[in-house]
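User: Teach me something about this protein's shape.
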Amino acid sequence: MRLSRPFFQLPLLFDVARLQAEVAALPPEAWVAHPDQVPGNSAVRLITAGGGENDSVHGRMAPTPWLEAMPYLKQALAGFGVVWSRSRLMRLAPGAGVPEHADINYHWHTRVRLHIPVVTWPEVRFHCDGEAVHMGAGEAWVFDNWRRHHVENNASAERIHLVADTTGTAAFWRFVQAAPPPRAQWRKVAYDPYTEYSLLAEVNQRFPIMPAAEVQWLLDDLRAELAAASDGPEARARIVRFSQLLESFAFDWRQLCALHGVDGAAAPEFQRLAIALRQTAPLLADGLVMRTNGVSALLVLEKRVLQHLVAEDAARQREGLS
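Assistant: First, the predicted structure itself:
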């Protein structure tokens, strides 16, 4: 999700000692390797599809047994009053980091990450779009993950953050974007053992075929971000041609949706249209990038749109593969 600036610090302070005690009580087997196998990165899965040991972002999300064993951490999440998607404890080994990247996948188009540091050190720095901050233990932060960002743990000890994904409610975003009061007036979130907190978890179910309105929304957003890596008449002409290609695709996709609906009954026809775009786009997108983060426009088109137009199950069923 694109935000108006790289970082937002929320005026909240959590009980660091309580958070650290709950994390320290986790058994070693709770920690698993980062799904992308990034060296020095490991995680504890807290909210997952079905509450199981997986990294999926699709399906009915639920707390894992690890989260159920941490009542204060669960209370902290529930207290925001938002619906949570995949959420984890993320650990960085001493000297490790998260390589620079921008989160361009479909999942991130409408979601941000809340960070609550549990174990950290002054040498840990979070970089986003040329700015760098140290997120202190017990604080709460949101950042613009569409911009390029990376993390460095230059300390001699591990760093652990609670990292939780959400789209957020209107009230949540008003809270995030409001001017914070002086730090002495920030709300301190104490552990409450007497109240049952209801944790809201996402149900992320895809249509077999992406609806036309969503395709239009995603492509319009991509077109608004188009820029050329180098300026000049030819580059500007490529922007126009590529934008027209995406606009034409949106018209044709809308017609197929009007003719067949989105239940997957005509998946091969939708696939043919998507394949034609996948074949034509590279011819027009050379040198085109996203204005905000410099990522290739072709890569964003693939990761954010093309991979999600036709659900895998619908495609397999209609091709007789399952």
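Now, about its shape. Residues 7-204 form a domain with the Jelly Rolls fold (CATH 2.60.120.330). The longest strand covers residues 83-92. If you'd like, I can walk through any region in more detail.
User: That's plenty for now, thanks!
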